[in-house]
From TrEMBL:
Taxonomic source organism: Camellia lanceoleosa
Protein name, entry field: Uncharacterized protein
Source domain of life: Eukaryota
Length: 112
């Protein structure tokens, strides 16, 4: 179950968050090949964020998943989430950071 958690310094008053959630859910679902019902999206606005020494619109996102993350998936996530942030919240792609975490990374497959 992928979970995308986004924090931004953009005020969300007047933003169509339903459209944001819908598009983000579809993108994450498609990239991971999971049903939309398995995808969680969190969006927090008006967070105190400074990026590059200024407070222009910026975002920090973290995606956590149990498997399914590789370099191709990471590239697609950066492009697609960056596009949504630019379209819906007017955040330039260069002012967006994505942290990717696979909860199964480093686990050994063992039978006891």
């Amino acid at each position: 179950m992928p979970c995308l958690d986004i924090s931004t310094n953009v005020c969300l008053d007047g933003v169509d968050t339903e459209a944001f959630f819908s598009e983000a859910t579809k993108v994450v679902s498609s990239i991971f090949g999971k049903p939309e019902s398995f995808v969680m999206i969190l969006l927090k606005g008006s967070v105190a964020i400074s990026f590059g020494g200024n407070k222009e619109p910026a975002a920090f996102a973290e995606i956590v998943s149990m498997g399914g993350i590789n370099s191709e998936v990471k590239k697609k996530l950066i492009v697609e989430i960056g596009t949504i942030l630019q379209k819906k919240l007017l955040i330039e792609r260069s002012r967006f950071v994505l942290k990717v975490h696979d909860t199964t990374a480093g686990r050994k497959n063992s039978k006891m």
